[in-house]
Amino acid sequence: MGEKTRTSAAVSALKPEWADPIPSGAKTVEIRRGHMNRMIGRTLVYRTGTGLIVAETRVKGMHATPPDVIWRAYGEASRIPEPVFDGYAQGADRLESPIRYERPKTLSEVGLKRAPQSWCYLPEPVEPAVPRPSTDHAQEADR
C-alpha cells in the first residue's frame, strides 16, 4: 500500500441511512446538494444523531454536472431512490477505499466546533487513516 500523506478533506453530515452503507463499500457515490469549489482527497463521514465521525473514504473523483447526467452515471451507486434524487443532486463524489473507525472521532478531534449542515472543509489537512495509493496504482485507476 502507498504511504500516508496529509490531504485536504471534508466532513459530510449524513443521516444514518446514507452514512451506514459507506464503510462497507456498498455505497460508492455520495450525492451533494452543492458542489465544492476545491478538490478534496478524503471525506470523513459524520453520522447525524450520534455526534461522531464514524468512517472515512478516499475521494476518487468529484463531479458537478446537471442532475440528469449525475443520475444516469451514478444513480444506482448512490443508493438514493430516483424521486428523492430529483431536484437534489448538484454534485457527486466517487468514493473508494472506505474504512470504519474502530473508535469513532468527535468533531473536536478533527478541528471542528460544530456539525456541518451538509458538509464542510476541515480547517487544515490531517493525517488520513486511508493510505494514499502508490503512483502506479493512481495511474492504473485513471486508465
Write the layout of secondary structure elements.
Elements: E1 9-14, H1 16-19, H2 21-24, E2 29-32, E3 42-47, E4 52-63, H3 67-78, H4 82-85, E5 91-106, E6 119-121, H5 135-141
Domain ASCH: 14-62
Family: Belongs to the iron/ascorbate-dependent oxidoreductase family.
Pfam families: ASCH
Keywords:
143 residues; alpha+beta; Archaeosine Trna-guanine Transglycosylase, Chain: A, domain 4; 6-stranded mixed β-sheet; 22% helix; 33% strand; globular; disordered C terminus; ASCH domain-containing protein
Report a brief summary of the structure.
The chain has 143 residues and is α+β, with helices and mostly antiparallel strands. It is built from five helices and six strands.
CATH class: Mainly Beta
Q: Roughly how much helix do the residues carry, as a percent range?
A: 10-25%
How much β-strand is present in the residues? 25-35%
Number of beta-strand segments: 6
CATH superfamily: Hypothetical protein
CATH architecture: Roll
Give a quick account of the main beta sheet: strands, pairing sense, barrel closure: 6 strands, mixed
Order of H and E elements: EHHEEEHHEEH
Q: Indicate the radius of gyration in whole angstroms.
A: 15 Å
What is the end-to-end distance? 19 Å
Mean pLDDT: 80
How many domain units?
1
